[in-house]
Amino acid sequence: MRIAYLGQMADIATENGISKKIRAQCLAWQAAGHEVCYFSLTPSAAVWPGMQSVPVEVFPRGRWLTRLRQSWRLARRILVSRPDVIYFRYAYHSPGLVRLFREIPTIAEINSDDRAEYPLTLSRTKVAYHRLTRNRVLRAVGGFIAVTRELAERLAGFGKPCQVIANGITFADFPVLPPPDRERPPRLVFMGSAGSPWHGLTRVAALARLFPSWPIDIIGESVPDAPPTAGMHFHGALPRERYEPLLRAATVAIGTMALYIKNMDEACPLKVREYLAEGLPVIAAYRDTDIPDAADYFLRLPNTANGLDAHRERIARFIDSWQGRRVPRQSVQQLDSAGKEAHRLAFLDQIRATRS
Fold first, then answer.
1. CA atoms lying within 13 Å on the CB side of residue 279
2. Are 331 and 344 contained in the same domain?
3. CA distance 7 to 312
4. What does the DSSP 8-state code read for residue 207?
5. What's the confidence (pLDDT) of residue 195?
6. What's the pTM value of the predicted model, to 2 decimals?
7. Same structural domain for residues 104 and 38?
8. Distance of CA 168 to the CA centre of its chain
9. With CB atoms 3.0 to 4.6 Å apart as the test, which of 50, 188, 276, 346 could cross-link to 332 if both were Cys?
10. Do residues 280 and 177 lie in contact, with contact meaning Cβ atoms separated by under 8 Å?
11. What is the widest separation between alpha-carbon atoms in the chain?
12. pLDDT digit string (tens) for 9-67?
C-alpha cells in the first residue's frame, strides 16, 4: 500500500513522545513493504533528525490566514500524491480535510477524548470552532483506530468500523536496565509534559510529601511557579540519551496520575511502555489497556483527586518489593509494537478494500 500519514498538527521538530511514535509506526510499515510519506502542518519547517528515514512533507502553519492557505495546500498535496489510504492522527477540522477524506479511504487514530481535553488546553474560540466542526471530520473518515476500549465506546455513535490498538513500543530499541543497588534508598522517576495537567504533577508532589527522603526525578517539566516539594528534582525536557541515566538510577517509575481531569479512566501512555520495556515497575492511577489487573509490576492507585495518604503502606510495600529488581521482558511482551503494527496494517487494508 501507499500510505499517507497525516499528522495534522503534530510537532515533529524535536524528539518527543509523539514524534517517536510516528517514526516507529512509519518504520514498521516500511519494513513490512509499504510506501509511507508523512504530512503535517507544523509550527516550523524543522524536522527532528530521527525522522530522516521517513519521507516527510511539512507545511509551516504560521498565523491564521497562512494556516488556512497551508491547510488547503497540504490537502491538495496529499490528493495529487494519490495514496491508497490515509492514516490520520486526529486533532480537529482543517480546511480541505473533508473533501480529501471523501476522495481517499481514511482511518483516524483517536488518542484522547478531545471533547474533554481541548477545553483544558485551547482557547474558548478554538474550542467553539472544534465543537461546530468535529462531526464533519469524523463522519468523513472510513474507520477508527482507538488506543483504548473506553475511547472506542465513545465513538460508537458514528457507526464506523473501529479497532482498539493500544500504543506499543519497539522493544528492540530499548535495553532492559540493570537492577538498582538494593542497599541504596529508593529513587523514583516521572516523565511528564508542561501544559498537560492530567499527567498528574500535583499528585507526584503529594507522593513526595508522603516519602520526603525518596528523591523523585522529574523529566519534561521545569520548576513550577510555586515552590516544589522537597525531594523533587526538575530536569526539564531532555533527549533520551540524557534522561536514560535517570531511569537507570530509579527503583520505580511514575505514570499518569490524574486522568480524571479529562473524564477518562483508561489509557496506554507511551512513557509507561518505555518504563516497562526498560524494566521499571510503575505506579499510576488509571486502567491500562494492555496491562492485566493482577500484574505485580503495576500499582494502580485510584483515579481521583483525593490524597494518597490512605495508600501510603501499599505504595511503600510495592516499592520495597522492587528494590534491586527489574521487570522481566517476558512479563510485558504484549506491549511490543510488532504485532500491533501488523494488526494496524491489516485494518488499513480492510478500509482501503471497501472503497476500491
1. 20
2. no
3. 41
4. H
5. 83
6. 0.92
7. yes
8. 10
9. 276
10. yes
11. 63
12. 777 888 888 899 999 999 999 999 999 999 998 888 889 999 999 999 999 887 878 88
Read off φ and ψ for residue 37, nearest 5 degrees: -135, 135
Burial class (CB in 10 A: 0-12, 13-18, 19+), 354: exposed
Cα gap 277→280, rounded to integer Å: 8
Buried b vs exposed e over 317-336: b needs ≥16 C-beta within 10 Å?
Answer: ebbeebbeebbebeebeebb
List the beta strands (DSSP E) in the chain. Answer: 2-8, 35-42, 56-60, 85-89, 106-110, 143-146, 162-164, 188-191, 216-219, 232-236, 252-254, 266-267, 282-284, 287-288, 298-300
Can you tell me the distance from the alpha carbon of 348 to that of 83, in angstroms, rounded to the nearest whole number? 12
Give the separation between CA 165 and CA 205, rounded to whole angstroms.
32
- Residue 353 grid cell: 478494500
Same domain for 190 and 64?
Answer: no
Residues lower than pLDDT 50 in the chain: none
Structural domain range at position 317: 171-335
Q: Are residues 291 and 222 in the same domain?
A: yes
Q: Quote the CA–CA distance of 241 and 69 in Å, as a whole number.
A: 38
Note the pLDDT tens digit of each residue in 276-318.
999 999 999 999 999 999 999 999 999 999 999 999 999 999 9
What residues does 85 pair with on adjacent strands?
Answer: 3
**What's the confidence (pLDDT) of residue 227?**
66
Cα–Cα distance list, 134 to 97, 141, 173 (Å): 12, 12, 36
Q: C-alpha grid cell for residue 79?
A: 490528493
- CA angle at residue 123 from 139 to 126, to 5 degrees? 30
Domain shared by 131 and 263, yes or no: no
